[in-house]
Amino acid sequence: MFPSRRHLLLCVTFITLSLLLLLLATPDWYRPVRPMQPSRPPGRSPSSIDRDTGRTVGSGGGQRVRDGKQGARPAGSRPTVRRGKGSAAAAGGAPCPSGLFTTISAHGRLGNKLCEYATLWTLQRDDPRARPAWILPEMQRALSPLFGKLPLPTLPQSCVKSESHFLKVKYSKFDQMASAKRRRPILISDYPCDAKRFHKYRDTILRQLTFRDSVHQEAQRRLRQSTDALCDGLPPCTYIGVHVRRTDYRTAVRRMYKGTLVGERYLTRALQLCRRRYRRPVFVVSSDDLSWVRRRLRGPDIVIAGSGGAGSAERDLALLAQCNHTVMTHGTYGFWAAYLAQGDVFAPTGFGARDSFLSAAMGQTDLNITMVPAF
Ligand SMILES: *[C@@H]1O[C@H](CO)[C@@H](O)[C@H](O)[C@H]1NC(C)=O
Ligand SMILES: *[C@@H]1O[C@H](CO)[C@@H](O)[C@H](O)[C@H]1NC(C)=O
């Protein structure tokens, strides 16, 4: 029995060894397993390949071209490209636009930024030399929480590290700039607010600056909550947004207009005009100086609704924009509250050596603007 048992063992070992050798010698054996993976949904495998190496789509892509199904494949491969770029951007390597382009500073607060955005959009709309136009990441960060996606593309942060990258140009000088100077991308670096010019495209601009649903709904809720007690029953209230700009604008008014901030007198007058003109007016007041308006603006039809605190400028702009008409005082923020509300506008006159360039610009538009003496 012993020898035969050993024989058997030898036999088994031999067979096992030869099988193993056969396996090792023909790695082709495993090949059929591999193509199984690419035969998964086409969108998936290339993206994982792409993320690993960045450029392995070749094998799959080659197969695709051979398949000749170009109609279906590019759709599958497009997300690959997008994902690849996304990861590159995360690593700070998103490509900068090649060739010349125009951008605009994102100086100032919300009102300024809206002016700058609308001015740039209009410039590139009117003047092919300003195309393509890109917005700075700072602009995008400020505006997109309110309005969602804007049509002008955003420059990757890595492309704006150095201002020397740009040729800084004043907005008023853009038109006359010699084409020879346009060797670098252009940064319009003052704070332009060309209301007269962008008003030509009012409908388009307003469509671009449509509040996100969530922002709109929250603003409507706030408007109703703050005026519920006053606006019970019929007829419906006429909501008048009142923006009272104070604090640091005192120096701006002195510097730019050799003037003084409008105060109680102006507001009393403007509100009185509204009471005469509209049915059942309710005044929804927002300000950068809430304690001042609380002390000075009182009445059964006045609600101090401004929120103060973090993010209040954005939330209050959305609130004022829900109103039917606007009483503004100074500055671009009040202008935008009025522009977005799309109703009648009350603005001060005679608070300085000249009126705000905004009311001058608005006077040349078809907005129903009533100039109210400041003092
Ligand atoms: C006035 O504003 C309120 C609140 O946004 C709105 O519901 C109402 O339709 C507006 N009225 C008119 C006449 O536009
Ligand atoms: C514009 O303002 C005037 C008062 O100056 C007012 O009588 C008129 O109704 C307003 N027009 C519109 C379309 O609201």
TrEMBL record:
GO annotation (BP), single = carbohydrate metabolic process
Q: Which GO terms describe its cellular component?
A: Golgi cisterna membrane
EC number per UniProt:
2.4.1.-
Q: Which GO terms describe its molecular function?
A: galactoside 2-alpha-L-fucosyltransferase activity
* Highest taxon of source: Eukaryota
What is the annotated localization of this protein? Golgi apparatus, Golgi stack membrane
- Is the Signal keyword given for this protein? yes
Q: Which InterPro entries match?
A: Glyco_trans_11
Keyword list, A-Z:
Glycoprotein, Glycosyltransferase, Golgi apparatus, Signal, Signal-anchor, Transferase, Transmembrane
Keyword Glycosyltransferase in annotation = yes
Q: Where is this region: Disordered?
A: 32-93
Note the CDD domains from the entry.
Fut1_Fut2_like
Q: State the signal peptide span.
A: 1-25
Name the predominant localization.
Golgi
Q: Name one Pfam family in it.
A: Glyco_transf_11
Annotated metabolic or biological route of this protein: Protein modification; protein glycosylation
In the bilayer, the protein is annotated as: Single-pass type II membrane protein
The UniProt family comment states:
Belongs to the glycosyltransferase 11 family.
Name it: L-Fucosyltransferase
- Organism, scientific name: Amphibalanus amphitrite
